[in-house]
Design brief:
With 158 residues, the protein is an alpha/beta fold. It has a domain of 87 residues. It is 15% helix and 47% strand. The protein contains 4 helices and 8 strands; from the N terminus they run H-H-E-E-E-E-E-E-E-E-H-H.
């Protein structure tokens, strides 16, 4: 790669590994400038409830309930999750079986998702295993369409 010499000088003689190398080692690639929340490593097994107010990366085994309603949950490539999940965004690289509720769900290549999914946005990459029942709530068009007046507003005019 270009500018490796400048990168080595800036990092005290060490070149920074590429995202491809990180993925090959089983780690998730780091996003520059992104502050990760908590992480459960590959040797961690949790049975029970997980709740939090920060992003979470799971690369171990979880069985139970995961509740991160305003945050991002990333299921790592080595993770096995059997749970009821509530999060803002869920990205699946590993295996998930259960009920999942989120605004956005992204199942990546090599990821597996089985169960029930309730979400507004869904993306499934080629090479992902996806065997679920999907529910996508429909927004109320009357409240979002500016061309229609509500029945209550029409009643007050008449």
């Amino acid at each position: 790669m270009w500018n490796q010499e400048q990168l080595r000088k800036a990092n005290g003689g060490l070149a920074q590994p590429s995202d491809a190398a990180a993925t090959a080692e089983g780690r998730l690639p780091a996003v520059k400038g992104e502050v990760r929340g908590a992480a459960l490593g590959g040797s961690v097994c949790v049975t029970g409830d997980i709740t939090g107010a920060e992003d979470l990366v799971i690369d171990g085994q979880v069985e139970g309930r995961i509740d991160l309603p305003d945050h991002t949950l990333t299921i790592g490539p080595n993770a096995t999750v059997l749970a009821t999940i509530t999060a803002n965004v869920v990205t699946v690289f590993g295996s998930v079986v259960g009920s999942l509720s989120a605004d956005r769900v992204d199942v990546r290549q090599g990821g597996s998702l089985e169960g029930t999914v309730t979400c507004a946005r869904l993306a499934v990459q080629d090479g992902a295993h996806f065997c679920t029942r999907v529910e996508m709530p429909v927004p109320d068009r009357r409240s979002t369409d500016t061309g229609l007046e509500s029945p209550r507003a029409l009643a007050t005019v008449a």
